[in-house]
Amino acid sequence: MDTVLLIKAAIMGIVEGLTEFLPISSTGHLILTGALLGGFEDARGKVFDIAIQTGAILAVIIVYWQRLRETAAGLGSDVRARRFVLNVAIGFLPAVILGLLFGKVIKEHLFTPVVVASTFIIGGFIILWAERRQQTAVRIQDVDQMSPMDALKVGFVQCLAMVPGTSRSGATIIGGMLLGLSRKAATDFSFFLAIPTLIGAGLYSLYKERSVLSTGDIPLFAVGLFFSFVSAWICVRWLLKYIASHSFVPFAWYRIAFGIVVLITAYTGVIVWAD
Questions:
Q1: Is the overall model pTM greater than 0.90, yes or no?
Q2: What angle do CA 124, 198, 68 make, to 5 degrees?
């Protein structure tokens, strides 16, 4: 395995881990980073982008390990644990159905610089709008207060992230806030919902595109997964502390600026946008 390619895989893993759980779109950043680095534009590269999300999810599992362990232990007797699992399952369902129905079409037609830049910029303004809402609009302070209908609504909002540049975490966190969840409740549920969503997407992609992979790709994927895990672990722990006393407004302005950068780099030829 080429050492330079492994270094590129490490950089891609760091980008994935740092951006997956922030409301700034990991997909958009991976597209741009992969185009700048080179070597990730083919079918194998696209599988790599999805597969390394598993490393980021492992970080979430470790950070929330106590809650997940208590939930698993209480499924037989704890109503709260059963409701929590039910809500995550309900929130996950729309992504499964709509992903299977429209995933191929979206990948073929929406992975363009105009779409990615537009969703970055529009998403930034939506965050600014969400952060200006009155605090009295918050009706759910904790994920345990969520109803199945609340989970279903967040699940449908998560499906917006199938459009590249939207951000899965951005859609679920900001969407949850607009639906009445507190910033912390929306962030926690976004993390919990990411576990089945990203693991499922990663396994499905590996199975579907198994013909383009070989045993020689194992070091590449292992490096990406490792660095994705480390950077995501740092990022998740930081974000949970950050939201206790800060808003998402800085991320909104970052999205707007990044969207402009995507357009400039694509149309000035600084990067070659992969087909």
A1: no
A2: 105
Crossing angle of helices 43-51 and 3-19, rounded to 10°: 50
Residue closest to 21 by CA, chosen among 29, 10, 32: 29
Distance of CA 82 to the CA centre of its chain: 25
Contact indicator for 18, 254 with CB cutoff of 8 Å: no
CA Rg value for the chain? 18
pLDDT in tens, 233-266: 999 999 999 998 899 999 999 999 999 988 888 7
